[in-house]
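Structure record:
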Amino acid sequence: MEQIEDALRAGIPILYVTSPEEERVVTALEQSSRRLKRKLWLYTVSEGLWTVDFPPSENGPPEPVYGKPNPEFRDPVALLRNIKTTHVPKRGAIYLLLDFHEFLSDPVTRRLLRDLGAVLKAANSAVIILAPVASLPQVLENDVWCRAFPLPTRTELAASLGRYAERNADDGLAGIAADQVRAAVAEAGRGLTLKQFEQSVARAMVRRQGMITAAVADDIARARKDILRRTAALTWIDAEPGLNWGGLSALKQWLAERKRGFSDEARRAGLPAPRGILLLGVPGCGKSLAARMTAAFWNLPLARLETGGLFTSRVGGSEERTRQAISAVEAIAPCVLWIDEIEKAMAGISGSADSDAGTASRVFAALATWMQEKTAPVFVVATANSVAALPPELLRKGRWDEIFFVDLPGLGERREIAEIHLRKAGHDAVQADARLIAEHGEGLSGAEIEQAIVAGRYRAFAAGRSMTGGDVLAAMAGQVPLSVTMAEEISALREWAAVRARPASVDDVQEQRDDWRRRKAGGLVTLPVAGRSTQDNLVMD
C-alpha cells in the first residue's frame, strides 16, 4: 500500500494491481483514499459506478458508506467517457475498476484509457484496475503502472486471528489466543490469502471444539499444504523422517556453517541470507537427495518448481504463473526451492523467439532476475547433469552462493552409502558387507549401489534365504555402470568442473579428481569399471 500511495501522490494516472484478494485490497484502498483525502469511486460490470464516503465518526475511524450504483455506466466505454467528461473536473478522485482487465482486449477501450491518462494526471486523479491475474496488453505497458499486491504477512494473519477470537467471544474464544499460540497459528498460515486463512481457522475450530490451541497450528499447516499444492508449477514436499545421505562431506560442512543463516542473529551480525547453490554432477550421485536433505537439515519447508508447469497456451499466462509461483514461495519463506535438472528447463531458450514468440525466454529471464535480486529468504537448490545446456549468465556469481560438483563416490563414501541401505534393508552384517561392496563398487554411483543391494535382496528372496554380501557383489558384477555408458560425458564434465566448481566432497572424491588430473596430464584417462581389477579398467586415449 505504501508503493500504491506513493504512486498516487506522484500523479501516476493509471495503475494495475494484481491480487486474488479483492475484498482485502478494496478495504486497503478505502483506507488509502481516506488518508489521501480523495474521493473514491467503485465500478463493477454488474452494478455500474458508485461512490464511497467516509462520514465523520466519534467512535474511531469512520466506516465507509456506499452510494447507490449507477447502472448507466456498466458499459466500459460509457464508463471511461463519463470519467473523462464529468468526473475528472471534480479533481482528487480515485476510480477503482474491478475486473476491468476483461475489457482491455477491445481497441476502443484501450484507446479511451490511454486518452484518459493525460486528463487524470492534470486533475490529480487516478484509475486503478484491480484484477486477479496480470493480463495487460503490450500496447498499454508504457502507460500503466503495475504491481502485484502481496499476500498477508504474519502480523496481518495474527491480527485476523485476534479479530476472529473477538467476534466469537460468546463461544469462549476471547483471550485464549495467547501470543505464543497466535504466533504459531499465524506462522502456519503464511502463503495463504486472508480469506483462505480465516476459512482454515474456522474449520480448525470445528475440529478442536472451538478452542484455539497449538494443535490449531498443525491443522492450518495441513490446510495450507492442500491449498498451495494447487499453485501451478509448485509441488510442496513433506519432510521425510529418517532420511539420510552418505558422502558429500564438503557440501554438508558448507550447509552446517549456514544453518543459522536465516536467523535474526545472522541479520544483526550483518550477514546476508544464503541465496542458493547449483549442484552439478554425475547422475545418480545424490544431487536431488541433497536438495531434500538441505530442507530437512535446516528444518525449512521444501517446494519443488516444476518448470514445465509454468507454461500455458493463454497469452501472458506463463508469465502470470511464474509470478504466482514466486509469490507463493516468498510468502512461505524462509524455505528451500528445489529446481531439478535445470538444464532441461533451459533447453530451447535460444530458439524461443521462433518457436513460442519468446515466452520461454521471458519466463526464465524473470526467474533468473528474481534469483539475482530476491530479498525474501528463499534458498534455491538447483541440480544439473550437464553444463552444456546452461546459459553462461546462469552460472555467474550472485545468483548462487556456490557451484558444487558432485562426482562418483570414493571408497569411504561408497561404504557410507552401502551402510545406509543395508541398515534400511535390516541386514545383519552391515559393517563387513558394506566394506566389501565399497571395495568392489569402484565406478558405481550411489543410486547404482542402492539398486545392487535391492537386486541382492531379490536374489536371496528367490532362493528362500537371507541376503549375503555375495548376493550384492553378484548383482554388481552384472551391472554396466553409468561411468562406462557415459564415459565421455562424465570425462568432459569433470574437466569443466575441475577449475570452475567446488567439490562436494573433500576426501575420496578430491583424491580421485587429483589422480584423474595426473593421468590426464600423462595423456591417458582411466575410467574405473565396477567388478574389474585396476589393470583391467577401461583406458581411453
